[in-house]
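The aim of this short unit is practical: by the end, you should be able to scan a pair of folded records and say something sensible about each. We start with the first protein, listed as its amino acid sequence and then its structure tokens.
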Amino acid sequence: MLKKYITPLVLVLLFSCGEEKTDKNLHISGYIKGLKKGTLYIQHIKEGALVALDTIKIDGDSHFTSDLTIKTPEMFYLFLDRGVSNSIDNNLPFFVEPGHLNIESSLEFFTADAKISGSKNQELYDEYKTVVSRYVDRNLELVKQRFDALKAKEETSVIKIEEEQKRIVMQKYLYTTNFAVNHGAYDVAPYVALAEIPDINLKYLDTIEKSLTPKVAHALYGTKLHELIAERKKTEKK
């Protein structure tokens, strides 16, 4: 009778001891179509420099995985060392958060073909980039127009184009501010403020900071935004 109760207990203990315990809270899986040989580096920015968190050798199989521990949602970078090419299309930013994230792309168009799923912050960041790209494209058109006008010595046209460029920049800044304020529950909000509009009028940065939830405000980018605001207030008082 005693044996009947001991056996299941022993099995449970053996099973528990055999389990692999891990504190990894981020699982990344991916597939790079056409990549047969090369090296992938998963990186993040630390003290102003890109630092590798994982190195993945690709040799025949285009699939890859990585398990990491993160303290807070953060922008990571997937760097592709092709080994035989000096292509500038080799560094893919992606927003990580605890859970399972999947990256699919191609060797030919590494950043353009990228599809990233499993991260709400990434989903929102993609939405943000889609809108901002319109302002960027329009500004590039204006740069060409301004060059042509300068070449033709059309001063009136140059002035009008420069005014339009300023208007485009202001539209981008205001959109970024509204985006951040409307998504204060996500770490992408302080990130875009830091990455895209760090020099905007302080009242807008203050508005963004006040819109952040406590969790986001005390995470990586919320803390950095607070530090930026404090530093600017101190500097601009002088």
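Turning to the second protein, read its sequence before its tokens, just as you did above.
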Amino acid sequence: MQAYLKSKKQLWDEALYHPFIKACSDGSIRKSQFEAWLVQDNIYVLEFMRFMAQTLAHAPPEHYSVLISGLSALDSELDWYKEKLAERGLSRDVEVLPGCNTYIKMMQSFADKPYPVQIMAVWAIEYAYSEAWATGAGDPDDFKAPYNEFANRWGSKPFREYVDQLAQKAQEALQGTSKEVRKEAEAVCDKIASYEVDFWQMAFDA
């Protein structure tokens, strides 16, 4: 994973160090920007959970525990999103904005990909969240309230450990695969980094 990330440093830096994250950290993010992100991210997480379930269906048994733990966390996370939206008086029944919709459609297109490609996609998606909130704007503890709650959720040590477990499973899945599959897996990760940028920007432009 490190070799891949090093080779695509500029692409991933754009995803991890976006102005949206930095604005959350220093408290300059506008209410409308953050709420646009929160509502759309709730929609995205629901679709991501479906994708995770499809990935589990293709996974070898020795990968079940990590993926099931991820699904369980996502289930709890959807309840947490419901609470956060209710606190702000936001509806979950909203139009899906283009930046979210295109990302979801891309993720849905992974459903018929080989398992090594799917698990790489899962890792890349979770890695993007972990690293953005953990390092994209400094230490999570430095985020201004109320955004420190979000930084501490995804920038936490337990979440990063989970992402590391996904990286290990992805590496295991890629071993012995063809050059074409490895190339496809990297291409999928490239797309995820690009769509992460678009998702942040979608909210930042709100």
